[in-house]
Each structure stands twice: as C-alpha cells, then as structure tokens.
Amino acid sequence: MYGWNGKILRxxxxxxxxxxxxxDADFALKYIGGRGFAAKILFxxxxxxxxxxxxxxxxVVAAGPLTGLPGPSLGKLVIAxxxxxxxxxxxGNVGTMAAVQMRRAGFDALVVDGKxxxxxxxxxxxxxxxxxxxxxxxxKTTFEAERELKExxxxxxxxxxIGPGGENMVRYATVVSQEGRAGxxxxxxxxxxxxxxxxxxxKGSRDIPLAxxxxxxxxxxxxxxxIKSRDNxxxxxxxxxxATIDWAxxxxxxxxxxxxxxxxxxxxxxxxxxMEAAKVKRRGCPYCNMACGNVVLDCEGRESELDYxxxxxxxxxxxxxxxxxVSVLNRIADELSIDTISLGNTIxxxMEATxxxxxxxxxxxxxxxxxxxxxxxxxxxxxxxxxxxxEGVMRASQKLGGDSQNWAIHVKGLEVSAYxxxxxxxxxxxxxxxxxxxxxxxxxxxxxxxxTDREGYTEAKVDKVIEFQRIRGGMFESLxxxxxxxxELGFPLEWYPRxxxxxxxxxxTLEDMLYRVADRxxxxxxxxxxREFGQSWSRLMDYPPKRWFTEPITKGPHKGKMxxxxxxxxxxxxxxxxxxxxxxxxxxxxxxxxxxxKDVAQQLSKTVTLTQ
Length: 612
Prior knowledge:
Layout: E1 7-12, E2 17-22, H1 25-31, H2 34-45, E3 59-62, E4 76-82, E5 89-95, H3 97-104, E6 109-113, E7 120-125, E8 128-133, H4 142-153, E9 158-161, H5 164-167, E10 175-177, E11 181-183, H6 188-194, E12 197-203, H7 213-228, H8 233-239, H9 244-250, H10 272-278, E13 279-283, E14 293-297, E15 303-306, H11 308-314, H12 323-336, H13 340-355, H14 368-379, H15 384-389, H16 393-400, E16 410-411, E17 414-415, H17 425-433, H18 446-452, H19 459-479, H20 484-489, H21 495-504, H22 510-533, H23 547-550, H24 565-579, H25 589-594, H26 598-604
Parallel strand pairs: 1-6, 7-12
Antiparallel strand pairs: 1-2, 3-4, 3-6, 4-5, 7-8, 9-12, 10-11, 13-14, 14-15, 16-17
Helix pairs in contact: 1-2, 2-19, 2-22, 7-21, 11-13, 12-14, 17-19, 19-22, 19-24, 22-26
C-alpha cells in the first residue's frame, strides 16, 4: 500500500508484550484511518460492559493516510477508548508532532491494552515499541513531564502526556501535547491514568510511502497557496477562533452563568481584541499555515494558549470577565490535563448549586482565587467538592439531587461545549446526536443556522447537521485532518480526494468519504453505544439539557425564548429517518447491510432487537 503504513503497534501492559500487526488495503479503504480505525477496533475487541477504567479497556491512538504529510493541517491524530465519563464511545483529536512521528516510525495506530504494575511510558522508534519506567515522571505536570522526556529522547520527538488529572482519573481528563494542545474530552487522559501510562513518545525517521511523491508535493504547495489567498486569512491569523466571543455575544449564544443566558456583560474584556493586546506568539499543529493557537501572557506572567472554547467556558460561563485570569485557569487545566470545556461546565454547575443552596461552603460566580483552588481539588480529587466535580456534571447532579439534573448541561454525560442553544434548534440537534456526547466539532451548524432561519424547525436543518457530521465527524476525523481551513476560510473539500490520490494511488471520491465511509463510521459508533446500554437505550439519550426546554433566557436580543420540545422531537424523527435508523435511534438491519456492517448487526442483535 501507499499512503498507509499498513501496521498497528499493540502494547499489552499486563503481559509486558509488544507486537506489530499488519492490516490490508480492504480494511484501509473501508475505514480510512483515525476515528474509523479506532471505532472498528474498539467495537470488535471490547466486551459489552467493559469497565472504562479497568485493564480490559483499550486506548487507541490512530492516524490517517494523509497524517504527517506536508499539506494543510495534516498533523493530527485521534485518541479513543470507551469513555469513563459517558460509558459510550469516546474520542478526541489533537494536533501534535506525535502524529507525524508515529507515522514516520512506521505505524498508523497504537493500541494499548492491560495495566502496568507501576507507572510507565511507551516509547516507539524504528518500527518497535518499548515499555519504560515512568517512576520519576508520575506526579509531574504535563509541561514538566514533556520537557524531561524531550531531554532524554530529543527535542523533535512527539509526546502525548497526562498530568495529575489523568493520574487521578478525573473523568474528563485529557491527553496533552506541546504544552497546550489537548484532546480526548470524554476522559481519554483518565484511561491512560488507569493503565499507569504517563506518556507515549514517538520518534520516527522513515519516509511515509507515497504513490506519487512529486505530484503530491506540487499539489500540497498549491493547497497551501489556496489557503493563504482566502479573504479572511489575515484576520484569522490575528484572532483565530477568539473572534467567536464577540460573534457569540452579539447573537445571544455565548454561554453565561451555567448556560442560563446567551450574553455576557463583560464579553469585551475577554474577546479577540483583548487577546490581541496580550498576545506574544502563535502556535499551530504540524504542517499548518493558519495556526489557531493564540499564546498570551496570563496575569501570573506565564504563557497560556487560548481559543474560543476555553475562554468562553472559563470566562463567561463562570462569570469571570478578566482575560488574564481566564488565561491562568486555562494554563493550569492544561498542566493538569483537564478538559477546559467540561471544567468550565462543572464549575458553572457548582456555582449555581452554591447559589441554590445545594452546596454548602461552595463557590460564588467569578471567584477567581477559589476557582484556582477548586481546579487543583478536582485534579487531585481532594475535598468533597473537588472529588464530586471530578465525576462530571451528570454524576454530580445525580448525587446532589434537588432539581439539579434540570440544569446539568450535558448530553449522554459529556458536558456541552461553548454554545447556548435556547434559540438554535439545529445546533441543539447537532449536540444531541454527536457521536461522543455534546461536542461542537462534528456539526458546527450554528453560524449557518443564524444566517438562514435561526428559530425554524426544518428539514433543511436536519440535512445540514447530517452533511456537517459527514464532513467533520466522518471525513476529517478519519483522514485525520483539521476542519478549520474548510469551515473558516472556505478551503474546498475537493482538495482532499486529490491529495488522497497522490498519496495512496487510489481513486477515493468525495462521495466515498462522505456517504459511505462517514455513514459507516456513524452507524458503527452508534452500535457501540447501543450495545453498552442495551435495553436501557432510548431516544432520550439524544435529548439536550432540560434547561433549554424549560427556562427561557432573560437577557439579550432573544429574551423570553427557549426551545420547543415537541418540535425538537420532530427534528429527531427526521434525523433518524434520513440516517436509516429507527425511532429509538438505532440503525436498522437494512442500514447495517447497506453500509457493509452485517457482522456488527449480528453482534448488536444479541443485545437489542433490530428492526428491518
């Protein structure tokens, strides 16, 4: 094969065994890479009911056929496992030199099984893997550990690492790289911690085999030039995703005070222009020429890499209108390997619980010093509140009781990312049907929705959600490539099959990737979820937070409005029908067969009854 290395490295920590497995072109074309590989491996190899924090869970690190090649934003990989936060399929992507170095070390994926007796790290070089002691690294922050590993193995290695949040199995712990790049919101860092794996280090030296190296290089250069020619390129370089703060506030969708409101009175103090005033550099993923990582000096004089999501969730959502202080909280979260989106959500939940008397000696809105302390309490699972919030808002609300489940802002256990959806039913559907729980990365339809028919419950919105899921959650997550050139600058999708042809020598059309592979991956991940929940699975798993149905917003241009549950159900029915899923949200036998997943249907039918 060209493009793909055709090899997966398997590390069994319990048996202290490392093996190389080969796969064929049929597997490659059916699942492409990244999320496709991860979902197939996890569905096939995990038993239903596997403890996400037990040794039987598997951590999959997977790349795609374009990963690590010079080309627009092709330095990303997917990290996946059964999620300790949701109990379903979990993954996240991260832009990192680890993606490039894993591919140059000769592998397209790494599968980690079992549990080490003592802290270890996995070192991969020269088409081989090693299990090495991490005794001196355990307990260190992600920044400290990565620096020490680079002193040992060289500054150009790729490192995936966890901090105390992962070690103590905070259910939304992430995996961090390059001091600010993080991935794996549904607790992939906790899975690493449960296996006593502090870090994974990749070092490669081989060339990735290409069908047409000269043709590929020429095409990639043209693609880079295309991106730089885009109208919004200059402003993007200045602010990146941070421009979204003003846009979200103006349109009444900026999460504020635990998603009660969509506008924040101090938005101008945490917006893109405030960021520009504090900016000292930019960071990006490997091979990216539109880097989105805006690095500022926080109010403690340390560097912190910001984007929209972490500023909104650790700013407006907790009532903190001071960018320098928000930046401190963001940096601490990265050092500890805690997801900033879920963190801002859980802290906002705790603040509201304090306000309503469910938490004694809790935390007030915007209390920076107490938030700092609370983040460490969460990471180290110390003090009653810290340990409670380390479980995520779904479990915290179940334990607190009262009416707190009505304002626990999550879907399937994953906290909602930074868009309030009281008045945007299309984006609500996107959150509700995301394959990992409430995350924006798969179908960010909100900008299109606000431009067109903001409050409508229409078939066009269902079509747009599925279209974006196919592009963002299917094609980009399996290639693995960044979605930002396309969604932010209008970089045409047609570039990707052209790059695939030069890399692999195979004619893989846009239709193949969007309507066959993408739909196959979504059906496979849905099967994973349904198999885990069995008879308790229902369409209620695809419902958004109750707050959006029951509590209208009280401020801003859309004051007094909220979602209509009956009409949302209509959207969900349309979504299921267009996906070829039944009214429970389960793919039908016909759909599984059409997508080449007859074996998956046979497995799933042991758990639930499938319709024709």
